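Two folds, back to back.
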Amino acid sequence: MATEPDDQVSETAGASGASAMPADAANDASASPESFPYEGPPELEAPLRAALANVVDPEIAMSIVDVGLVYGVTATPERVHVQMTMTSAACPVAESIVEEVEAELDRVVPPAATICVELVWDPPWTPERMSADGRRFMNW
């Protein structure tokens, strides 16, 4: 796993392909906090969303999608790129969450595709990113 000052990127599987997140996906104020931007083949969207919804943040026992940790997904037949964050840069379970994201995606991504999970810290996570279900769960 390559680590840079403010970003962590983890890639697994086949050959890497060029792919970029939609412009300002993580900053998109119009994006619903209950979801995340997706760009890619329509047939991969539902399986990718379901795979990410299966990943639970063990510190709060809630899906990373409901917590609002997923900032966006870009998919091609060669590569799936997920931009996500943690509730804190000091998150003690960040590595295990990323590993679980990779494992869940590996179940639905075409075998030749590379899975790239990128941890980003800008913009920082805020409780406003949580889904309505997540806010209800937390009694917020």
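---
second:
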Amino acid sequence: MARTKKVGSTGRFGPRYGAKLRRRVLEIERKRAEPHRCPSCATRGSVRRRAAGLWECRKCGLVFAGGAYVPFTDAGKAARRAIAQRVSDSLLALREAEEREAEAKVAPTPEIETIPEVEVTDKAQPEDAGQGPEN
């Protein structure tokens, strides 16, 4: 069997397809074979490729979508950052709204108390007023 020190697993192609394409295939195969970390249980080396774009953790059983050759692509990482930013912004807005509602409930605005109006009449006092109790 021939040695493939330089070309690695792409030695199976022989002189076909050109050196640049064989190097590209070699790089992809090495990335695919290296140990990956599970996004759920964070175990390194337990994630295996199930099919193109499907990855499975052998420890926790999580099956998730990823890239065809690597579980986490650069585009996927950028999308996660954008989603996380939008979620955090909406959570901050919700938190601020809740704080405003809580402040409104805790410190209600003081209402102006109205003094009941007393009707003033010009009626004369009754005749027995001021004479004391009757015996």
